[in-house]
Structures are given as C-alpha cells and as structure tokens.
Amino acid sequence: MSISSEHKPLGKQVTSSLHMLSPIVELNVGGEIYTTTLSTLKKHPGSKLAEMFTGQPKLRTDSEGRFFIDRPGTYFKYILEYLRSNQVPTQCIQDVYKEALFYDIEPLIKQLEDSPQIFGELVARRQFLARVPNYSENIELMIRIARAEAVASRQSSVIVCVVRTEEDAARCQDALNGLDMDKKSVVKFGPWKAVPSISDLLDCIQMDVEAKGYKISFQPHVAEKGFRFKSHDFFYKFLFTWW
C-alpha cells in the first residue's frame, strides 16, 4: 500500500528538488531552530548561504527533517535579521563577522568591516602586527616556553625583548650578552616601522595570549647589578598564572 504524500516523512521530502518544498523552511543551526523562507535565504545569490538552497539540497537534515547547518546557532539570528531587514548587528560583532565570512554574504561583510570593532582590528591592529617580524611565531614560542617551565608551579615566566628600531636591536643584543640567563629562552619582538609604541606592542602581546585562554601579566624586567643599560628599556617579564 502506498503512502500518501501528506504522510511522508519530512526528511524524505527535502532530499528531492527544492522546488517541491514549501517556501517556508525550518533550519537547525548548531542546535538552534529557525523558521524562515527560501527567498530570505537566497536573498544574495552569490553567497554560500544562497547556494546551499539553490537546485538540489546541499545540506543534511536532522531527525525531524530540518536542514542542518553545523555552525554556531546563536549568531545565525543576526545573519537572518540582516537578510530580512538589512539591519546590521550591533552586538557580538566579531562573532557575527566570522559567520558572515563563512556564509559569504558580501554586503554584510563590507558593512561589518566599517564598524569600529572590525575596522580597528583589521585595518589598524593587524596591519601594525603584520609589520612586526615573526609576531605570531613569537607568541607561540612564548607559550611553549611558559608551559615547559610550569611543572609543579603556580606561575611561570617568559622574558621578552622588545625593540622598535634597528639601533635598539643592536643595543638589545649587546644588553642580552650581559644578562645572566639562558639567552635562547628570551623571545625577541621587533624592530618595526609603524607608529605604535613599545607599550602598544606589549598590550597586543597580552591581548593575543589571553585570547588563547591564558592568564598573563607583564612588568619591566630588572637585570642584575652591573648591567650597562637600563634593562626596562628592552626587557619585560610576562608572568603566566596557571591556577
């Protein structure tokens, strides 16, 4: 005996052409349930989101037959609100920006990049850090050193040498030769050609290490007596607190 179309499981229906679907669509985005229309989802034809719902379905369905998108559901509401009313979100900007990039919604991406939060990160801070040689690699090196020294300790420290100019780099190397420590454990940042100061770079280091989940603080490193230069001209101690 055949089953009438009205009793077919929804999961069966969505595996057929999208033209057979109701214009009303249910979505499961990372566990969050949304109801919208196909026309809303396809509002920007060149986007990845529109492509998901063009032609044959390109998504899996959950046990209830809803289209499933394996992304953070919390921020999809802001994506959906933009598609419905062109309203640019004012909350969770960084996270919504990541989702806009994933769904490749170009108009939203451009508008978010004009927001102070994204503009400051992309145009100002990241452009500065791109001019600091091996910045990302040095952040990872700091973390490796701190973790290696954390055995049976509540805290571990990393000495950082920060130089802004080539002249300071030469002086720093001379100063480093006078330090009574393992020179391989000193992480060097700089020099760079940009307006931000040493203080700005130190703040960036703290910000990016903390973004990885670590609790840190820093202070000028005071060298032993007899040191030819003021050590805080170049050297800083970053303290990792583990518990």
TrEMBL record:
CDD domains: BTB_POZ_KCTD14 (cd18371). It comes from the Eukaryota. InterPro entries: BTB/POZ_dom, KCTD7/14_C, SKP1/BTB/POZ_sf, T1-type_BTB. It holds the Pfam family KCTD_C. GO terms for biological process: protein homooligomerization. Residues 23-120 form the BTB domain. This is KCD14 protein. It comes from Erythrocercus mccallii.
